[in-house]
Amino acid sequence: MPILPIDTGRYGTKEMLRVFDEENRLQKMLDVEAALAWAHGEVGNIPREDADKIVKTASVKQVKLSRVKEIEREIKHDTAALVRALAEACGSSGAYVHLGATSFDIVDTARALQLKDALDFVEKRLNDLETVLVEKAEQYKETIMIGRTHGQHALPITLGFKFAVWMRETARHIERLRECRKRALAGKMSGAVGTQAGLGPHAIRIQQLVMEKLGVKPAQISTQIVQRDRYAELVCDLAIITSTLDKIAAEIRELQRPEIGEISEAFERERQVGSSTMPHKRNPITCERVSGLAKVMRSLVGPALENIPTWHERDLTQSSAERFIIPEACILTDYMLVLMTNVLKNLWVDEKRMRGNLKLTRGRTMSEAVMMALTRKGMNRQEAHELVRQLAIKSEVEKQLFKVALLRNDAVHRMLSEKEVDQALDPRNYLGTTIKQVDLAVQKTKQERKARGLTER
User: Fold this and answer.
1) Of 60, 198, 244, 351, which sees the most CB atoms within 10 A?
2) Strand partners, 153
3) In this structure, are residues 185 and 394 in contact, taking their beta carbons and an 8 Å threshold?
4) Which of 77, 275, 413, 417 is catalytic?
5) Is the pLDDT of residue 311 over 60?
6) pLDDT, tens only, 216-244
7) pLDDT band at 409 (very low <50, low <70, confident <90, very high)
């Protein structure tokens, strides 16, 4: 009976759920057993006809999940149950199933096969997110809005600049993921404590053949398990990715507040319900879901790190934790990337509201520009800062335009004409290199995408 929201189908894409479902896991383990038998046949450890029989039989079509579970209920060991089920399906050739291997030769190598598929999906989702961010950065690179620090109005930026920052962060995630997968996707065929004693004189060659057959790298040296720093790095990377999604989601949620109202999630006006009791509500529910799931993702980092230390050549303390955290980390990351890509693709932008919000402080957000104008005319920078600070306070207290407070001040009036004050108070004149930075960031991202083999639409 499904209980958790991943199991009920509430969270997760069909593609990623398939990677981690029970039948696919069983097939990956059978693939490893088949590759092991084939390798034994290649080096002459077992007859080729027996190796071929095992390879042909190692399929969920012939080794049923129900039979494996039936045996497991009896012997209380899942991998041994798989071995017995495969062996009985192979007839006399079953004598050579699992020859020289230990359980986690099969489990860890099968997990590498699952992660290979899973990370392909995650990278594709990251590329899709990056595509949208490139488009948005270009589309809105000149759309002026107020920048905020500490939740307060700071200086003008553009919406495209915000997208470009997220775009480059996404590019770094792709780079990290590609580096991480070199270490995370490792298999092994090294026996009970890593010495390969049970595999015979051709052990190193057998491990090499198995991994080449399966398309994963062999761990150069291992104990009974692949060392868990590999998985800890992966879970940390996925948590970092989803923390960026959380950051984007939080920004959208903040800017969707009615008192700000600059951007918001799309809302299906014909059917979507915002509240069971308040008909007027339009809640940023998808962004809130992303932020909520990001908490779960960050919570997985602790167990992943705790799994690195084991007693001697291994204990079983990491096994039960990994059955949760590895599928969960991949499924949630993939799902959250899909959610955020859709939110950004369909984002509502209110440029008129952005222009209106720029005027909320009656020009005081341009105080730095005024200070810099005064210093260019020869005023000491520290004196200019203090003068403009006092005039900004005066403007706020007396509820007057900042321009009025400036022009009524003798020191400012002597150094700046009204036209120069107007120029300093125009947000478009104080964007610095904003648009140039967006252009350079987009150019760099497109170059990287081309290097990854992606073609631009």
Assistant:
1) 244
2) 148
3) no
4) 275
5) yes
6) 999 999 999 999 999 999 999 999 999 99
7) very high
End-to-end CA gap in the chain = 44
Given 66, 92, 150, 280, the catalytic residue: 150
**Digit-coded pLDDT (tens) for 123-177:** 999 999 999 999 999 999 999 999 999 999 999 999 999 999 999 999 999 999 9
Per-residue confidence (pLDDT) for residue 443, from 0 to 100: 98
Task: Print burial letters for 402-432: b (CB count within 10 Å at least 16), e (below 16).
Answer: bbebbeebeebeebbeeebbebbbebeebbe
Question: What per-residue string of b and e applies to 39-63 under the rule 16 or more CB within 10 Å gives b?
Answer: bbbbeebbeeebbebbbebbeeeeb
3-class secondary structure, 2: coil
Known active-site residue 385: no
Which tokens go with 391?
A: 């005039």
What fold, for 1-99?
Fumarase C; Chain B, domain 1 (1.10.275)
Write out the CATH class of domain 102-358+432-457: mainly alpha
The topology (CATH level 3) of 361-425 is Ribonucleotide Reductase Protein R1; domain 1 (1.10.40)
CA distance 309 to 344: 40
- Write out the residue limits of the CATH 1.10.275.10 domain(s) in the chain: 1-99
Give which of 290, 280, 388, 288 is closest to 334, Cα–Cα.
290
312 is an active site residue: no
Identify the pLDDT of residue 356. Answer: 97
CA 66 to chain centre: 35
Q: Vertex 173, ends 147 and 178: CA angle to 5°? A: 165
CA-angle at 235, arms to 16 and 312, nearest 5°: 120
